[in-house]
Amino acid sequence: MVERPWNVHIVEESFPLGPPLSLIVLGSGTSQGVPLIGCSCKVCTSVDPRDHRFRASVFLTNGKEAYLIDTAPELRLQCLREGIEHVDAVLYTHAHADHTIGFDDLRRFCDESGKPIPILGPEETLVALQRMFPYAFDGPAEPTGYVRAVPHAIRENFLLGSFEVSPLPVIHGKVATFGYLFCASGRKLLAYVPDCHAFTEEAWCKAQGVEVLIIDGLRDHPHPTHLSSSEALRIAERLGAGFTLLTHLTHHASHRDRSRNLPPTARVAYDGLRLRWTERPYCIGMWGPQWRPMPRWESQP
User: Fold this and answer.
1) Residue 122 gets which letter from DSSP?
2) Which of 7-16, 252-261, 263-272, 275-284 has the lowest average pLDDT?
3) Residue 38 CB: number of other CB atoms within 10 A?
4) How far is CA 32 from the centre of its chain?
5) What gap in Å lies between CA 1 and CA 8, rounded to an integer?
6) Where does the Metallo-beta-lactamase domain lie (predicted)?
7) pLDDT tens track for 170-218
8) How far does CA 196 lie from the centroid of its chain?
9) Exposed, middle or buried, 278 (CB in 10 Å: 0-12/13-18/19+)?
10) Residue 257: Cβ within 10 Å count
11) Total-model pTM
């Protein structure tokens, strides 16, 4: 276990996005989303909006630069919900459909900027995207209402605007998968690892002492390619993470039930949750939409 070098203060209140880093959880659900099609369990029929989960993705900004990690199938809806109008680049964790299928909705950001959008990730993921969306990589260089992308295969640490970003190779079935570590001004601000069954030694070394860890916590019982809640929390403890959010969640338990018995510096993510990092002593601001029961949808005669 790594001794935490700071006291983390969690402030749950509204705040503007800004430096050094702010994050919006665009989606916190597993590959099928929640509610599931055709499921009438208590979570899929819940009126708590925190139990309605789009596929996993986050938006990062420091007030000047804006980045996406993954393009979920609901990307357009996520951006409309959060008022996102500009994206400078997209980082991909891996090639599974729930993290890539929203790719075509990047066309709006190409139209807005007037230039192709950089996409970064494991080489295997970029090859898969070029196979699925060949029109985005072939033909005229200038966007004309269609998405245009410039791929950059990631193999080592790189600079992304104001951030130094480190790929975190993790084990997730047979597909090449990265998490990402964002650093600035000597601070390990964020490790985002939404799909993972185990850390590689490289990932362990890089992410030690991270301030915020957003990590796969699929469900309470084990899974062959994902982390359970308890497994994720053990990783957080070993890393000495200051604050932990569990994401990529199934319908096996509600937000309220999943939140019980968590340590003081851990929370369950939900769609629309916002984090903001402040200056030392590392106050983590956390805020989400006003909780209110959602009316149950009923068909009209």
Assistant:
1) -
2) 7-16
3) 6
4) 16
5) 17
6) 54-248
7) 998 888 899 999 999 899 999 999 999 899 999 999 999 999 999 999 8
8) 13
9) middle
10) 14
11) 0.89
